[in-house]
């Protein structure tokens, strides 16, 4: 019934309201979209569900989900604690999909065969555990033709067609465990007399340091041997295609194969630098691995995913002719990641996704332009506040020529990740003083993204003017409105030195001003640094740099950079 194998559903404890799920599960729910999860379970299985939900032990149990009158869907479920205490996470397999997963046994081979399908006529898999060879024709828009043989049967099949010497050599290398095994035989394996050669190449798939399977291709030709120097490289952390290979794959689909209905989606993990700075790179890797797993599970067999950069992914989605189909997939990925890493997650990382996408041939007629449009849509998603997806629309966003003239990509800060805080701030200063269009909201986001700030709030005109915020989990406008008058508190003003205030632990304010402490505590702050500056109208403004999840301690070495930020902000109007 479902193409994706495993479904991850985040629900609230006790109430069982669904917080997030994948698009296929939402489609399954239909007009029951707002029903609690427990009401989807057949009555005879609910007690078992409640028992497992209470202990959250991750053990699998069988149940049935209601589909329609007189028909239920058999499933396997397990339940574990969610990322925050109020949530639980339900993993769910439809039984037929679970059986397919057991039969297939290798997501990596499935990914490789999609890519290799572009290079040869047949895809070839060799399962060393079952001693079985599977040969299939794979095309995105064609029916898969599959044949299975034992390794011995496959060897006899080749011996009946080709030179004994070459066949024996090929299987000797295979059984010896060589990493790559390749041979070119005279004549055809499947084709007619016009076929001059058959090329067979496989490469090893490793798990836990051992070869578990081989994956490769069979190509028949009549001119020259196809030169495939290497098989696609998988990212070691996420198991996704590398940047070079996902780019090559997408380029070939669009520019060589001219596959209609290909959508390129670029996915960026919001404020990922802050996750690394706050929780460490190990936690950052865990976040990326989980995000990759969510995307893989949602896309399933309908596309290919690659890790495009440190915190960026690329999705190549097949047969995306329906705009609502795209929306469902992107919305589901975004919501599931947000459900996995929510705000106020009790000292755990909080993040979300920004996504931009464009399609071939609807939006552009070549890969480079489709990518440019998707990247621009991602830029707009981040500019509008993140945690959202934007699908390119010419009527809203302009033509490809308009977007190229904007040159938004070249203006991005620290794209290689090798600039110091001072260099970044000086780059921002240069842009502002040269009169380049640089909205204050974009500037605030760039500061948060690139110099490790958790929260940034600018109080214009002593809190009576424009207020700008940036950062993951920054207090909402209603809370800021309730607490903003603390910046004019007499005790707070008395603590400034040369228009700078540093409070490395807000508990210090308990004795100084309980009223101010209460407001800072209400915002969830642990430390703060204020810089007072005058905007271009002469109004007194306050830049507040704040830490919340992890306490940051500032010292004299930080002040020159933050004073320079205050100078940059003085070029804007905050009245």
- How far apart the termini lie comes to 58 Å
Strand content: 25-35%
Low-confidence stretches: 97-109, 139-143, 224-230
> Helical residue percent?
25-40%
What's the CATH H-level homologous superfamily of the largest domain?
Answer: Reverse transcriptase/Diguanylate cyclase domain
What's the CATH topology label of the largest domain? Alpha-Beta Plaits
Strands side by side in the biggest sheet: 8-7-6-11-10-9
- Mean pLDDT, nearest integer? 83
Largest sheet: 6 strands, antiparallel
Radius of gyration, Cα only, in angstroms? Answer: 28 Å
Tell me what you see in this structure.
This protein is an alpha+beta fold and 575 residues long. The protein has 4 domains: 6-101, PAS domain (Beta-Lactamase, 2-Layer Sandwich), CATH 3.30.450.20; 120-221, Beta-Lactamase (2-Layer Sandwich), CATH 3.30.450; 243-411, Reverse transcriptase/Diguanylate cyclase domain (Alpha-Beta Plaits, 2-Layer Sandwich), CATH 3.30.70.270; 421-569, Beta-Lactamase (2-Layer Sandwich). 37% of the residues lie in helices and 25% in strands. The chain contains 20 helices and 21 strands. α8 crosses α9 (281-299), α14 (421-433) packs antiparallel against α15 and α14 (421-433) packs parallel to α20 (559-569). The chain is globular and about 95 Å long. It starts with 5 loop residues before the first strand and ends in a 6-residue tail after the last helix. Mean pLDDT is 83; it is low at 97-109, 139-143 and 224-230.
């Amino acid at each position: 019934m479902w193409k994706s194998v495993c479904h991850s559903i985040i629900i609230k404890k006790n109430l069982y309201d669904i917080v997030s799920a994948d698009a296929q599960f939402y489609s399954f729910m239909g007009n029951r979209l707002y029903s609690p999860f427990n009401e989807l379970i057949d009555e005879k299985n609910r007690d078992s569900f409640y028992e497992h939900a209470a202990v959250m032990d991750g053990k699998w149990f069988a149940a049935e989900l209601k589909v329609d009158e007189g028909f239920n869907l058999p499933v396997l479920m397990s339940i574990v604690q969610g990322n925050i205490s109020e949530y639980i996470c339900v993993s769910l397999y439809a039984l037929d999909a679970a059986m397919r997963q057991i039969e297939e046994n290798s997501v990596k081979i499935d990914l490789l065969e999609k890519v290799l399908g572009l290079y040869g006529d047949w895809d070839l898999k060799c399962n060393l555990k079952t001693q079985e060879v599977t040969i299939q024709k794979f095309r995105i828009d064609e029916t898969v033709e599959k044949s299975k043989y034992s390794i011995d049967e496959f060897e006899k099949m080749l011996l009946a067609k080709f030179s004994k010497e070459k066949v024996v050599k090929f299987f000797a290398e295979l059984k010896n465990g060589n990493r790559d095994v390749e041979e070119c035989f005279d004549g055809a394996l499947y084709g007619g007399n016009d076929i001059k050669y058959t090329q067979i190449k496989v490469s090893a798939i490793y798990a836990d340091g051992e070869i578990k399977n081989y994956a490769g291709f069979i190509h028949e030709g009549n001119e020259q041997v196809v030169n495939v120097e290497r098989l696609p490289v998988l990212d070691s952390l996420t198991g996704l295609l590398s940047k070079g290979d996902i780019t090559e794959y997408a380029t070939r689909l669009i520019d060589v194969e001219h596959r209609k209905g290909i959508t390129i989606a670029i996915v960026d993990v919001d404020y990922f630098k802050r996750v690394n700075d706050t929780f460490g790179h190990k936690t950052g890797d865990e976040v990326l691995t989980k995000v990759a797993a969510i995307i893989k599970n949602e896309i399933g067999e309908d596309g290919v995913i690659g890790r495009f950069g440190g915190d960026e992914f690329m999705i190549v989605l097949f047969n995306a002719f329906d705009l609502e189909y795209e929306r469902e997939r992107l919305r589901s990925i975004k919501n599931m990641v947000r459900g996995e890493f929510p705000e106020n997650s009790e000292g755990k990382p909080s993040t979300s996704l920004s996504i931009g996408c464009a399609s071939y041939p609807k939006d552009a007629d070549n890969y480079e332009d489709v990518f440019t449009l998707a990247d621009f849509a991602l830029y707009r998603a981040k500019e509008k506040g993140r945690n959202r997806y934007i699908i390119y629309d010419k009527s809203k966003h302009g033509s490809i020529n308009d977007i190229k003239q904007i040159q938004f990509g070249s203006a991005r800060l620290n794209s290689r990740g090798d600039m110091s805080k001072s260099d970044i701030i000086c780059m921002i200063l240069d842009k502002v003083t040269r009169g380049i269009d640089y909205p204050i909201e974009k500037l605030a986001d760039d500061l948060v993204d690139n110099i490790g700030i958790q929260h940034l709030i600018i109080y214009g005109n002593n809190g009576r003017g424009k207020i700008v915020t940036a950062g993951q989990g920054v207090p909402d406008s209603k809370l800021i409105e309730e607490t903003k008058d603390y910046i004019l508190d007499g005790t707070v003003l008395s603590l400034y030195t040369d228009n700078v205030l540093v409070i490395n632990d807000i508990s210090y304010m308990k004795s100084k001003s309980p009223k101010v402490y209460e407001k800072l505590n209400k915002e969830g702050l642990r430390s703060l640094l204020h810089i007072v500056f005058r905007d271009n109208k002469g109004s007194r403004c306050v830049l507040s740099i704040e830490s919340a999840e992890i306490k940051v301690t500032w010292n004299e070495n930080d002040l020159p950079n933050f004073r320079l930020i205050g100078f940059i902000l003085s070029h804007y109007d905050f009245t």
